[in-house]
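LOG
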Amino acid sequence: MIPESFIQELLARVDIVDVVGRYVKLRKGGANLLGLCPFHNEKTPSFTVSPSKQFYHCFGCGAHGTALRFLSEHTGAPFPEAVRSLAASVGMTVPEEPRSPRQRAADRERREEGSRQQRILDQAQAHYRAALKQTPEAIEYLKRRGLSGEVAARFGLGWASRDRRGLAAVFDHYEDPALLESGLVIESEDGRRHDRFRGRVMFPIHNQRGQLIGFGGRLIEPGEPKYLNSPETSLFSKGHELYGLHEARAGIRAEGCVLVVEGYMDVVALAQYGLNNAVATLGTSTTPEHLRKLRRASDRIVFSFDGDGAGRKAAWRALQACLPWVAEDISMRFLFLPESHDPDSYVRAYGVQALRAYLDEAMPLSRFMLDELAARHDLNEAEGRASCVHEARPLFAQMPEGGFRLQMEREFARQVRLTPEELAQLLVAAGPGPGHAGPIAGTGQRPSGQGVAPGAGLAGRGGPFASEGGYAPEPEGAAWPGSENPGAGIDLEAVPPWQDAALRGSGRPRRRGGGSRQVTPMARRLLRLLLAHPALVSGLGDQQLELLAHHPHLGLVRQLIGLASTCGAAHAGALLQAADPESDLARAIKDLSTELMAQDLPDPQAEWDDALRTIERQTVQEQCDRLIESGLATDEDRRRYQELSRRLARLKAGAG
């Protein structure tokens, strides 16, 4: 049996757009992609794929699911074979034998170790932030860089003191191996330890789910290295992460593009001036994993580099990483600032509007590639042109087939004085290069540009699937379609709270008598939020969990929270894969498929908090009503009523 943990890891690695795109021609339709459904005959596209939720749904026949389900149902392959095929495409090996108790214990230990490292990083972050408030020289440095306290707080900036063992005051056991594994301390050959970060402004690094995974530190006085990142750990890999991506989500949507800069100070400085769509690589060249995340964030990517020789070389490396991803529905551009300027210094010198104007004039990838090739060879002589074609061959080989590559070949043919047919023959004779029509070299992952049909340009963004969708109100107690007992009520004994051991152990809801759980409009609203944004589960506090655990109409919500907590799903598709296909929860997810295809809310956390406040107001009001009905016969009843009334007044006033 294939472990559920492996399936979840696999779904986190693959991109459903790549998988579906091998079999279905997809085009942009707002935040999603549209195509003709492969599961039924249709002339108008109703088959929708969500890149953010890793989920497909056909509005015509109701087919829906994950990349794994699509592969299995479309090709007819048995589920294990579909898993092996998809795993091979991303360089993963499927565990073929049942997991022994020892192996399961090791898996559990690894998960617990990850959680422990997370707690250690959070504890260090609290210390660094508190230290910044007590360090005038660090505050003065940030002020000189033009940063306000508000922006520093928004990005969680902190300060690591110059004390060699400053964290010894934070952690009772400074010799704990977890401090070493988390990258916070360094152990010398003689066994003595000291803090990795000293005398630095600290920049916390979060993953896309908002979880703290590492740090970057910058010296505020002369010294080397000026920038220092956390080492590679089980939580942090600089080749996979982009600084500021989590914080920039709303800014990327507002600006319509993502700006890639070279340092975290650039990201924070641009945010200070109102440009909130910048992200930064962490001291490494752009990688395929970076491109995958950038592609999901926006269909317009602008790379910013210094205008000097080093900047041009870095830009050329980034261009080569981009080639497997080029397509008709994505724009990749390169911005070269004047020499001696980076985005931080440029915006401070000339203002944000001047930088925006520069962004509008950023060089398209095609122009940068052709100009750079021309600059490296003398195109006035046959030898130079032949040499230019030779250098261009592996570059074209990395591009997926399609309209973009065709346009590039025609322009390059004119540049080297060949006909398009002659150039095509030379490129074919050279054979496919790395990444051509296949996985990205070194990753086993196919770029999202593969499988995009020529001419599949940007579709109108005002289509029926691009608008924001809300939950459809239902009568109190309405059951999911297809339930065997539509009138069945919620039995709190039959549906244990989400933290019940049995539920946490399996992630599956227990069924009694074959009945379907009833769903109120509020439960539907919470389910939709959790499905669209599983990361909300990690932010639930004890008070919120207590409120949900005892509410009589939120059984499915508790089940979904338990499932998300158990399997660690990162998107709606992964949650659907983890749910028992015969359960009410799976039916609930299917019923919400249409709503899940709507664009993401601008602030899902605020929507979630508002929903829980509404639940709490209703709960407190019901308790007050019951006390009134009882006649407030005892002093305890009257005291309780007064306490609840004050609480209700605060909730209605929005004070919490």
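LOG (cont.) second protein
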Amino acid sequence: MAKNKQRPKQNIPPQATNPTLKAATLSSQSANDGFSLNPVVASIIITVAVLIAFWAGFSNDFVLWDDNMYVTENIMVQNPTFANLIRLLGVESALNYHPVTMASLWLNSALFGKAAGSFIVVNTLIHLANTLLIFQFTRQLTKNNMLVSFLVALFWGIHPMHVESVTWVSERKDVLYTLFFFLACIQYVKYIEQNQRKYYIYCFVFFVLSCLSKAMAVVLPLVLLLIDYWYDRGFLTVKNITSKIPFFIVALLFGALAVHIQGGGNLGGRIEKMTADVAIANVFDMGTKLKFGFYGFLVYIVKMFVPFNQHNFYSYPGTDEYNAIQFITAPLWALIVLGLGVLAYKRQKAVFFGVFFFFFTILLVLQFLSVGGAILAERYSYIPYFGGIFLVFYYLNQKVQSKNLILGGSAIVAVVFMYLTYKQTLTYKDTGTLFANSYKYEPTSPVVNENLANHYGRSGEINNVLLYGEYALSKGVESYALMGALANAYYLKGDYKKALDFYQKSIDKSPDHRKFVAYYNRGIANRDAGNFDQAAKDFTTAMEMGENKTAYLGMRAFANLKANKFKEAYNDYTRMIDLGMSVDTAYNDRAVARYSLGDTEGAIKDLKEVMKRNPNYVDARNNLIKLGVQP
């Protein structure tokens, strides 16, 4: 020890040379005996496997499950100007504030167009980058153990439970926050190993970017404490905690902001609201929340090993099932898992690290704070599964002597997982396939039925709209989209009274930026029901609230004409002519308005203008004949 003290100082932290860490390093190195794989070759294999597993999703379309709010109906992404980018940085989307994510969608649209495929491909490429980052991070943790690092990255990259995060366009936030999250972890390990403050700063910057991509990143400080533990620097020590005070401050700020926005807030008007709903619902008592939260915790663990019955919406059970055995016993089983992790603190570092990496990174979405209407969601497993997969392969590497046996068995499971991932990507082909798949497992879910009704409404399948929509309505769903779908269905069936009732409900429920659609649709229904004066008012409101202030000018002009509001009709048709909108029709119908106002000479002039422009315009020809003028 005296000799060690006399050696020149090196640019590494003192903890890196302690006996415990040295033993762990030797153990990791000896685990490589009998197996070698070039990192470049490993990266190529991982890349090919990931791309094959997710390839089918590249031809998918958008799904109207948040994709409309993020891309297809987001005017700032659809029209990627610099002014819209600046506006986008201050906008809430789907009850989330994540400006880096929205900026990436804006850039995606600007560079690669608005087709769904480009967004899905970019999501997949970011996922691939995340997988390779996990390969690097695991190599750091295991002192370059290639077998463990390769298998951890491979299985994380191809896992079927990750399809939702990758193939669903709206989950750009998931893959993006993960990118910065693991970049931060890698920089922190460099900071520990090299004791250079710049890596601490890099880690902090990546953490902030991760939080700006998705609020779930706020758990990173806890993960950094786990990394301290892994490197024998202690765990919940005063030094470790105080060194991360800037991280905890940022985490608290972003966490509070997320809760505020999901509760319907807009930061005192500083953030533009695009969603009228709220995500946080306190409908359960704390005991029920604990049962459901720990149940989800266990399901995530089971599906890590056996990804079965996958779908996009896992409904809460009915009230008659709250005391089912799986929910009552869930806290006990979960505490046993966590207890085993605690017991492994001193003797099995990989167990403690893996269990609590999983727990810390999934803790905020275990529905202890009820957010949304699902008891769990596959996308929430994205980062947490690293902890579980790392634990599995690290443990197998220690306990199984034959590395070929590990590799061979893993290859078989990997092929199965790749196939399951491929199959799962196909369920995201479009809105119909997505919710038809969920309906197989959740036939009584109001949300699933609502979305099927909305889907069939867009494709004009009226009977299916009423089948699924009325069921969802009977279960208490009153979203603006469902009200609109039912209104459209009753309109198409000719039941204008019911249609108008539902259009009013759709208007009442719609966020401000979507109300114009409901007013437009109600205008059409009022027009066809003979309520021309109200139709004209609806079209006026739709234009005032929408982005295009002249979009429905022709419809309003016609409604005014039929309502005998000839002066208003004349003004509308004149504006249409000035704007070059449906000019022949505008001249012909303005002639009708002018005649009704007593201006027969002006009417004849307009009709002759139509015949000059289009000699085959039948209505104008007939109108001239009625006025005694030879065309």
